Amino acid sequence: MIDEFIDALTDSIKERFGVLDQAYIDDLLLEVRRDAELELESRFTVRYVLVDADTGQLESRTLFTEEQAAEEAAKQPSNGKSCRVAMLLLDT
Q1: Residues 6+ apart with CB under 8 A from 2
Q2: Residue 19 shares a structural domain with residue 50
């Protein structure tokens, strides 16, 4: 779920640091992604929920402990609605 945020850093890294080697940027972002995920998991209890892709409303009351399980549930038919997976951070 953090991928969208991390991917947005690619252009910023190129511009601010003058890095042109895409492989170096990919390696750097992989490290940043791992660090960010570990930091979030250490500070919060991470759960995943399904939301309506059109309205953004909570689609079910189920809290998934694994992102993959939420992604699979989002693929299941839900009254003709498309769902997205959202990350929920619970203060521990």
Answers
A1: 33, 36, 37, 40, 87
A2: no
